[in-house]
Amino acid sequence: MGLTSAASVPGGVLAIDAGNSKTDVAVVAADGTVLGTARGGGFQPPVVGTEEAVAGLVPLVAEAARQAGAAPGAAPLASYVSACLANADFPVEEERLQAALHAHGWGERTHVANDTFAILRAGVDEPRGVAVVCGAGINCAGLLPDGRTARFPAIGRISGDWGGGGFLAEEALWHAARAEDGRGEPSALATALPAHFGLGSMAELIEALHLGPVPADRKHELAPVLFRVAAAGDAVATRIVERQAAEVAVMAEVTLDRLGLLDEEAVVVLGGGVLAARHPQLMDALHRRLSVTAPKAVTRVVTAPPVLGAALLGLDQLAAPPAAHARVRAHYAADAPARTEGGPSRAPAS
What we know:
The chain is an alpha/beta fold and 350 residues long. Among the domains are: 13-114 and 303-338, ATPase, nucleotide binding domain (Nucleotidyltransferase, domain 5, 2-Layer Sandwich); 166-234, no CATH class. 43% of the residues lie in helices and 18% in strands. It has 14 helices and eleven strands. The strands form two sheets. Strands 8-7-6-9-10-11 form a six-stranded mixed sheet, with helices on both faces. The protein is globular. It starts with 12 loop residues before the first strand and ends in an 8-residue tail after the last strand. 46% of the residues are buried.
């Protein structure tokens, strides 16, 4: 679906979804029409600082505004800035980022939330449900129509997290190294992981990772190898996959419970590369667990871009009519695969 230009930008929302690897911006009219978009690189305040990270959004906002027909430097661009940002993990970080964004004058009101909320809102028909995101790392958030939320710090092992693609790769390497040198249980991971890089042993792979012939940032390639080895019946790999399923499930269960949804029908949105891949063993183990602990939960794998969720959150705040929500969804549906719904009962795709 193409963009619609306008001589002047009406009320509406400036939606920003800024993740670790990419950033999407959209200017959305109050009726849900997408007027302009832009995409850029990752958003990493812990690396470059809050001000510099926010400054990196300026050219993207300018491009989206240009497409929308706004005059150069025009402000405000929208009634509401809805920014769902990676690394907004604590209230103090949200406050700093919100102040930095609002200082640019892009909207009459500005709100910052963790980027997990964008994935959640993109996957539900109303602001009610839970999302578990398992990509490079793992995170979870829940939302109710009255504005109440539940979430985790989700900054790694020090906040109690287990899983995500990067973590799974490290776990697979650990078990593979011990399988080869005799300290651990035998596993096909010991040959499959080095073979992925054209190497003959874990000893070679360990040396290559340590000295640099295989860059450390390529370790994430090993998560899909782990799932393939598990699918072939390897006991060690299977336990890792089942542990990941249990971690996804327990985050969803706790969040549903915090919001009073554990015994009600509610959507659990699944996002991020690990879950979007729909590995059968992972999904089966997840649904088995939820069928016992949250039997009324319905899982939904979301494929729409998270910036859609940021836009919908903004339209929620503007009390936009259902037609506006449908219009912005239709815009992004043109570029996204159909979502899959399921759950403990393994409901068919819709």
